Task: structure prediction
Amino acid sequence: MKASAFLTLFAGLLLVSCYNPQHVVSDEMKPLSSKGWHWNDVQTIQTRLDDTSIEYNMVLKLRITGGYRYANLYLLFHVKDPDGKTQTRQYNFNLQDKTGRWYGKGSGELMTFEIPVNAVLRAAKPGVYQIGIQQNMRDELLGHVTDIGLRIEKGKVVY
Result:
């Protein structure tokens, strides 16, 4: 019994020591209404980007219930820079493989996804950036999406 407790503690310490929180600029999840995610309900995340010499990677964070009826999720990302200029781009996130198996992790009715966004974020100038996330599915009110969020990480240096 003592050996298994020691191995569990050692594995936990190893995982914590491998995690580098210095590369994470922001990490935020927002709960959505239990009634559903309305198409015009934009979830906004603010982050300060000060280093203009690097690219920032974005990772979509998503929680859905087992009642979610699609294999994918279309989202609009609205990125507003410190000068107020906004750029909008649509992304399609696949949530299942062709056999219907979820890519996310979970137990019971709740599935959690962390999906890299296939685009980098560049800070043209230091300051606060606002990233709005809006569902862009066929449904006016998209059900079974419980939380949406974004993690922004420091990426590679750009010359």
User: Anything to note?
Assistant: The longest strand covers residues 110-122.
